[in-house]
């Protein structure tokens, strides 16, 4: 879990994706005046909006919008990569694309941009994995996420102007679905714990004595009784003679 490769991924991927978001925002905001986000954002239920399923989280409308998503995205993505080193690529891709698909199908007929939907999906995945997996580390991560990001739940309420509350709500739904879907795909420490538990159960089930110990003793007593009786009969026949 603390391998150099995993530590490199924890630093490289969350910060790399955040760097892409910042570069895209700077190029769009200062060179194109927001035209890229308007064109490549997620337009619900329109053919032109299909690229936005993947690209919309990279675009932001202002510096405030970008900064409000930066720290939560890096920290939650870092937790995902650190605590789920085997699963994180599939989980992140599933949450990213799945949230986009849900917003594309169910969202209001406006242009949706920003990484907040992915942030909500990551928070929900980490929180609910602690419930579905029942692993000690997953529970600790879940409590940590709930402590620091539990207040985000208000973001799913409708009626907030300029905020894609559907992205927040559907990201939350996608995170829960992801946590449930991947609940049985264990990480290395979970596999080791399962093997240790199975070995302990086998030791408990193994009898202290061999299963036929008392059966053997019973047979021996029966044999001894048979020969003793036969001996008595022989002795009686001898005396009668």
From TrEMBL:
Listed SUPFAM superfamilies: Rhomboid-like
Keywords from the named record: Membrane, Transmembrane, Transmembrane helix
Ranges of residues in domain Peptidase S54 rhomboid: 53-183
Subcellular location, principal: membrane
Location(s) in or outside the cell: Membrane
Transmembrane segment boundaries: 12-42, 62-84, 91-107, 113-132, 139-157
Membrane topology: Multi-pass membrane protein
Pfam families: Rhomboid
Entry protein name: Peptidase S54 rhomboid domain-containing protein
């Amino acid at each position: 879990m603390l391998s150099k490769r995993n530590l490199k991924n924890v630093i490289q991927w969350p910060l790399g994706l955040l760097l892409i978001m910042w570069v895209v925002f700077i190029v769009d905001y200062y060179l194109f005046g927001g035209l890229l986000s308007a064109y490549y954002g997620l337009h619900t239920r329109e053919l032109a909006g299909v690229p936005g399923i993947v690209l919309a989280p990279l675009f932001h409308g202002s510096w405030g919008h970008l900064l409000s998503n930066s720290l939560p995205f890096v920290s939650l993505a870092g937790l995902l990569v650190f605590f789920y080193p085997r699963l994180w690529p599939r989980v992140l891709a599933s949450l990213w694309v799945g949230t986009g698909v849900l917003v594309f199908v169910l969202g209001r007929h406006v242009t949706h941009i920003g990484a907040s939907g992915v942030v909500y999906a990551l928070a929900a995945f980490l929180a609910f994995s602690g419930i579905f997996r029942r692993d000690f580390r997953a529970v600790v991560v879940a409590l940590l996420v709930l402590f620091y990001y539990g207040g985000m739940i208000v973001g799913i309420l409708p009626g907030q102007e300029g905020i894609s509350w559907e992205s927040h709500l559907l990201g939350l739904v996608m995170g829960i679905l992801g946590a449930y879907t991947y609940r049985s795909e264990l990480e290395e420490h979970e596999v080791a714990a399962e093997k240790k538990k199975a070995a302990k159960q086998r030791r408990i089930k193994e009898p202290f004595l061999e299963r036929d110990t008392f059966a053997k003793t019973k047979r021996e007593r029966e044999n001894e009784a048979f020969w003793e009786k036969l001996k008595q009969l022989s002795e009686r026949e001898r005396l009668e003679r």
